[in-house]
Amino acid sequence: MKWRRIIVPIVILVAVLLALWESSVGKADPGVQSDIPELPVPPPLEGYDPVPRPTIPALKHELTEREALEKAFYFDSLGVEWEQSWSPDKLDEDPDRIAVRLYNSRSEAAKASGRDIWYAPNLETSAGKVWVITIKGIANVSNMMPRMAEDELVSSVTYEFSARTGLLLAVRTNLLTEE
Taking Cα atoms as reference points, which of 112, 104, 69 lies closest to residue 88? Predict the structure, then answer.
């Protein structure tokens, strides 16, 4: 235990000296001339456009509502087990079960669902308009989302697709709560 009484104060002293040395190293003497010349600010690049441009190629035509529903059904079939199955062809049987909306951007879609999310301008531009498809009903999504326990059920699954590129942007679920 004697070595602790000697080592601890030495470690503290070294840490204090290093902190003092580090804080004084970066400070230049105002009277000393620097050898580094001050560079002028470069002019804007010719043809530079500060408006973000898409980074992902677009489809030949924007994704239609029917195509977005078919994509949702495809992804849904990969791992969601519904108590009551659904398909795009059976929408007329239970029109309140599936909500399909088109938003002008991912941020607008997020705000409409009560989420305060900001997306980088290039991501917003690449996505373009966004289809949001929410399927209501009791389901098990543990095959799709491995972090969920097998006995955890959800009350809805929401898919977001870019109308511009057709890509799946997000999948969200709402846990089923006992009321």
Answer: 69
Are the CB atoms for 112 and 105 separated by under 8 Å? Answer: no
Q: What are the residues facing 139 on neighbouring strands?
A: 82, 154
58, 165 Cβ separation under 8 angstroms: yes
Are the beta carbons of 23 and 96 closer than 8 angstroms? Answer: no
pTM above 0.85, yes or no: no
Report CA dihedral (85, 86, 87, 90) to the nearest 10 degrees: 120
**Buried b or exposed e, range 47-67, using 16+ CB within 10 angstroms:** eeeeeeebeeeeeeebbeeeb
> What is the distance between the alpha carbons of residues 128 and 63, in angstroms, rounded to a whole number?
11
Which pLDDT tens digit goes with each residue over 45-62? 777 666 777 778 889 999
Q: In the chain, what are the domain boundaries? A: 65-175
